[in-house]
Amino acid sequence: MAVGKGAPANCGRRLIPQILDDLAATEPDRIIYSFAKSSDLSQGFRHVSARAFTRAVDKTAWLLQRELGVTSEIRAGLFLSPKNSTEGALAVLEAANCDIWVSPAGEKPTQLVNDFLKQRPMRVMELPELEEVLPEDESELENAEPFPYTKRWEDAIDDTFCILHTSGSTGLSKPISWTHGLIGTVDAVRLLPPHEGMEPWAKGWDDGDTLYSTFPLSHGAGILMDVVISPLFGLHCVLGPRDVIPNLELISSMADHIKIDIWSMIPSLTDELGEAPDILPKLSRSKFICASGGSKVNEHVRVLNLTGTSEGLFIGNLWVDRQDWHWFAFHPWSGFDFKMVEPDLYEQWIHRNEHAEFFQGLFHTFQGVNSFNFKDLYVQHPTKPGLWASHGRSDDVVVLSNGYKISPLDTEALITSHPAVDGCLMIGSGKPQAGLLIELKDPTIKRDGDDAEALFNSIWSVVERANSLSLHKDQLHRDFIAFSEAGKPFIRTDKRTIKRRATMALYADYIERFYQSRGEDDNDAEVAALGLLTIDTTSLESTARAVRHILASIVPAVKDAPADANLFTIGFDSLLVFKATKAVAAVTDLGGIFLPRNFYAGPTAEAIAATVVRLASERRVMTTNGTTDSSSTEQQQQDPLEAKIRALMNRHKALLSSKLGPMDLFGGNMYEGINVFIPLRPGISFEQAYKVLQRGLVRAMEIVPTLAGKVIPCSEHEIGFKKGDVRINLPPLPSTALGTTPCEEPRQLRFRDLSSVVPSYAEQRASGFLTSAYPDELLTDCPSFPDLPTDVLNAQANFVDGGCVLAINVHHHAFDGIGMLIALTVWAECCRFIQGDQSATSEWLHPESLNRDMLSILYELEGFAKHASEVDPRVWGFLPYSDPALKRKHQEKDEDTYMTEAAAVNGNVTEPDVKRARLSRHLPEPPVLPACEHWPPAPRADGRTLTASTFVISAEKLESLQKSVKVAEAADPETQSLNKESGSLSLGDVLQAFFWRAAVRARRRPEDSSSDDMSIIEMPTDVRPYFSSHLPPTYMANCVIMNRQHMSVAELCSSQTSLYKIAQICREARTRIDQELVHDAFSLLHTINDNSPGNHTTAFLGQGIQDGPHSLFNNMMLFQASDIGPFGGDIFEAPEAVRVQMDWLNKAFRSLFVLPMRKDGGVELLLGTLPEELDAMKNDGEFMQFAEFLG
Predict the structure, then answer these.
(1) To the nearest whole number, what is the mean pLDDT of the chain?
(2) Residue spans of alpha helices (H) in 972-1058
(3) Is the pTM of this model over 0.70?
(4) What are 369-409's pLDDT values in tens digits?
C-alpha cells in the first residue's frame, strides 16, 4: 500500500510508546502538552516537552513495577467513569479482572470509589504528587532511567493499550479493550485516498497543531483526543484546569489566553456556544471544531462532525462541504451498508472486507464476526447521494443531547406497576432532558379537577422510586411528565406490548409541543397544562375547570375569584397573559389560534373557557385544506371540473378591489418600515438566496394578494365617496387570451449587494444589530410619504457577508404593524415551501384575514353599535381626528379663534348630555393636542435631524428597576384602592414611565416651559383582542386606536415625582380600553367626512418634531424575530433581529421604541435624539443608574 502524502513511515503500524520515545530523541524540546496553572487562565500554562513527558512516563513505570511487582502479563489501565452506578462499576471491574485501584495523591476518594471498595477487595495505591513525577525543573529528571518497550508491531497488535467500558444504557457496563491494532486504524486514516473529491477526516490535523478537548479523560473521546490522536498526529495537546468543568466562560478564556487550532467539544456545549455571539468570533481564528452540532458555530469556525463508536473508533469519515456540516459521508473502504428498515429510514451495518486491518477498527474488537449491526438509524440527503444524517437508534435507548444514554425498560416497567397506569414511554432523544408519557387505564378519568393533583402525586411517588434505582439519578423531573391524549391510545401488539416507534410517531407533534412548552421561558402554567391537564374541549364545564386551574397556577388569586372576575384586577399583566395564552394553546392544540387577543377580548375565566370551546369546535370541523363547506364524502363525490371552477372563483374573488375601511385610513398616506436580519447558511451565494426570496414572494402574493396590490385614490363618482378615500387595487389573474403569465420576478422586491459597503453579518450581530450602524437609505429607496397610486409593498434584499438585511416597507393603509408581521410570516413560510417543506402551506392563515368588511360586520353583531350622537365625545381622545361638532363650533366663531383653539379638538370643552353620560366609562378629559399644519410633516426649522440612539437595560438592572418601583408602590397608601381598579403594575408600565420621563427630561427647556406645559405620550394600541373574539386571529388589516397619557412637564420631570406615580398613570390609561370603547371609536370614525392625511390631529405631529415634549410610544418587548419563522431550507436560518427604520421617522416624528427582549433578558430602548439631548440622557443620574448607552 502506498503511503499517503505527508503520512509518516509505517503509518498505521506504529506504537504510541515508541512514537513518544522517538520524538524525545529527535525533538526533545518540542512542547507536546500544556496544562493550566490554575482556574484563572491569565496565570498562564505550564508547558511539557517531549523529553520531560517521556522521562515522567519512565519514572512512573518504574514506580508501578516497584510497588506492584514484575509480571509477564499486560496490565492495562481501566478508565472508569465517575458517572457509573456502584453495580455498574463492580460489573466492569469484575469483567476486566481489575484488582488494583490507583488514586492521585492527596485526593479524597469519591462516594462511588468508597462504595465499590466496600464490596470488592482491591489493593489501593496512591500515586505521588505530580511535581514529584513531572517536576517543573526538567533537570530533576536527568537521572530517570528509560523503561524499555521493545515490542514490534506484529507482536503488540493485539495487546491492550487501555480499557474503557460501555455506558450501561442497555444493561450493566461492559469493558472494551483498545488494542494497539485498533488504535493503528486511527493512524492509518491518512492513507485513505480521497473519495469523490472528499478528503478523509484526518486531513487538516497537521503536525504541531494545538488541540483542546472538553471531554474528560474518563470518556472515550477524551482518551482518543488527548492520549491517542495527539501523539499519532504530532499535536500539541492543551489541558484545562482540573477543578473546572468545561463551560462557555472557560472556552472564552481559553481562546483569549492560548492559541487553539482544533477544538473538540461535547454537543451540549456546542449548542450553548451557538447562542454566545460574544464568544463565537474568538474561535474564528481556529481551523475547525470537532462537534456533532452547531449551525451557528459553523458560521464562525468550520465544524467537523465525526461519528464513531467505543468499539471501532472513527471509521471512514470524510470531510463534507461546509454547508453540509451536519451530514456524514463515509469512505467506501469502511465497508458500511445502509439497509432500509422503513421508507426513507436506514439502519447502519458494517461488513468485513480486505481493508479490515487498517480501516475497519471494529473488527479488531470483534475479531470473530464478519458483519455487525450498529443499530444506528440514518436518513439520506434528498439531493446528494452518499450523505447521511443520524436519526436516532433502532433500539430503545433514549439518547439525550448531552450524550447520556438512558435505558428506559426497567423504569417504564416499574411506573406501569401503578394501579392507574396502563403503560408509559420515556421520551427525550435529542433533547436535554428525559420525559415520560403516561397512558392511564381509565381514559375517562377527569384530569382537570381537584383530584388531578392527588393522582399525579401518587404516580410521582413511583417515579421517584424508579429514579432512585436508575443508572442516572433523577433522570425524570416532575415537570417533564405528560399524559396521553384522549382518543389516542398507545399502539400495541396482540400481546399488548407497546409498539414504541409507532406510538412515538403518533405522538411526535405532541412531544414536540411538550418540549417547546418547557423551553427557556418555562413556567408553572405550562407544567400544569401538559403535566396534569387534558382539556375536554367539547365540554364547557370541563374546559372551565381546566382553564381556571391553568390561570391559578400563574396567579393563585384566580382560584378563589369569581368566574366572571376581571383577571387584570387580580394580578394579570401583559407578560402573564402571554404565558397563560401559551399554556392554554399548548394543551388544547390551538397554537396560532388561541392568542393573547382572545384573552384580552374576554379577560375572565368563564369567557376564556367559552372562547376555547368555540375555537376548538371550529378547529374540529376544519378539513385539512381549510374549507368547511362540505363533508369529506361530498368533496370526494364532487365533479373535478366543478372543484376547479370553485377554486378559480375563489381566486378571482380574492383579487376584487377592496375599498379601505375607517380604521385603514387611521395611519395616513405613509409607509411603515422594518429591517429583518437573516443569517445565510455557509457557502450560499447571494443570487441563490435572492432567488428563493423572489419565488417565495410570488407564492406569498397568491396567498396574500394585497402584497401585489397598489393603493389608489377612490373616484369621486363612487357611491358614498368621501374626500381622501382610497382602495387597494389588485392585479388580475394571468389571461390565456392576452397571453399573460405569472410574474416570477416581482417588481416589489429588489436586490442589492452591500458586502463591500457595510459590516459583515457577524460583525452586525456582535454589535447587537444597532439601528444607527448605517443609514436606512442604503437599505431602501422607498419614499416615506408617497404620491398615490403606490405599491402596497416595497422591499429590498440587502446582502452582506454571511447574511441578508431584508428591508420591508408596507403602506400603512394596507396593513398595520401586526398585519405586516403576519404577511412577513407568510412570506417566510412560502420560502420554506418552495424549498421542499410541504408542511409550510400557511393553512393557519384564516381565509377572512383580509376581509376589510369584517370589522363592520362584527360591529353590527356584537351589541355595542350605536349612533355617533350617543357616543361620549371624550372617545375622540382615542382617535387621530378632531371632533366634527367641536370643529363646527370653532368655525362658527371667527377664524382667528379657531386657529388658536383648534388644538382642543377632542371634546374637552364639549359637555356630554345626560343620555351620553349614562354610557360613559368615566373617561378622563383628553389632553389638548397641537394642530397638524403640514402633511407630510415639515422638517425642523433649524435644519437639524434626529439621530437614532439605543440604550440597553440588562436583565439584572431591569429587575432592580422594577423592584424600586414596587417598593414605592408598597409604600403608597393609595396603592390598595388603585390596584383594585386598575390592577398591579406590569413591567411594561414601569418601562414606559422610565423611558417617557428620561426622553422628556432630555428635551426640556426650563426657560421655555410654563406650569401649564403638558407632555403627551401616544401609544398605538392593537384592539383586535377587544373588538371581537370572533375576529379572525390572523386579521391583517388595520385595527388600532390611539391610547394617550398626559402629565405636566414640571411634574413628569421633577425628582420629587416617583416613577411609581408615572407608571400608575400609564397603567390606568391601558385599563380604560374595553370592547365598548373600541366600538364607540369605530362609530365615530364613520362620521369623518374628510380622510385626507392633513386632517389628522396627534401629539407627535406638529410641534413634537421640534423640541416639544410629546412622543409616539411603541412597546415591541414581547415580539421576537424568531416568531416570523425561518425562511428555511439549506439557504437561510431563522431571523435573528427586527429593527425599525428610524431615519425617516426621525425626520417627521418623535418616537420611542421598546425593542424585543434580548435572549439575555435585557431590553433595548430606541429613540431619536439631538446631540445635546443625548448628552442630557447620558448625564441623567436616574436613567443611567439602570441604562447603558449602546450607540
Answers:
(1) 82
(2) 975-982, 987-1003, 1024-1027, 1049-1053
(3) no
(4) 899 888 888 888 888 989 998 876 666 778 776 556 676 87
Return the CATH number at 266: 3.40.50.980
Residue 708 DSSP SS3:
helix
Q: By the 8 A CB rule, do 784 and 936 touch?
A: yes
- Contact criterion met (CB below 8 Å) for 454 and 448: no
Domain containing 411 equals: 398-615
**Cell numbers at 957, concatenated:** 438592572
Please state the domain count of the chain. 3
Q: Which of 851, 866, 901 is the last residue of a domain?
A: 851
b (16+ CB within 10 A) / e for 582-614: bbbbbbbbbbebbbbbbbbbbbbbbbbbbbbbe
Q: Identify whether 1163 is part of a domain.
A: no
**Residues 663 and 741 reside in one and the same domain:** yes
Residue 1032 falls inside a structural domain: no
pLDDT tens by residue, 401-453: 655 667 687 788 889 989 889 999 999 887 778 899 999 988 766 554 456 66
Instruction: Give the number of other CB atoms < 10 A from CB of residue 196.
Output: 10
Asked if residue 655 and residue 564 are part of one domain, the reply reads no
Q: How far apart are CA 917 and CA 899, in angstroms?
A: 29
Pairing of strands 313-314, 308-309: antiparallel
Say which CATH number the domain at 599 has.
Answer: 3.30.300.30
What nine digits make up the cell of 1124? Answer: 416570523
Give the model's pLDDT for residue 881.
Answer: 74
| 786 domain residue, yes or no | yes
Helix (H, G, I), strand (E, B) or coil at 9: coil
* Gap between the Cα atoms of 447 and 1107, Å rounded: 60
Alpha-carbon distances, residue 666 vs 442, 1088, 1096, 1142 (angstroms): 56, 11, 8, 21
Residue 953 has pLDDT above 80, yes or no: yes
- Measure the CA–CA gap between 491 and 486, rounded to whole angstroms: 14
- 545 and 645 in a single domain? The answer is no
Clarify whether residues 415 and 527 are in a common domain. yes
Residue 384 is given by DSSP the state S
Residue 1137 near residue 1123 (C-beta atoms within 8 A): no
How far apart CA 194 and CA 507 sit, in angstroms, is: 43
Residue 611 and residue 648 in one domain: no
927-951 confidence digits (pLDDT tens):
777 666 667 777 777 778 888 999 9
**pLDDT at residue 349, as a whole number:** 92
The whole-angstrom separation of Cα 827 and Cα 700 is 5
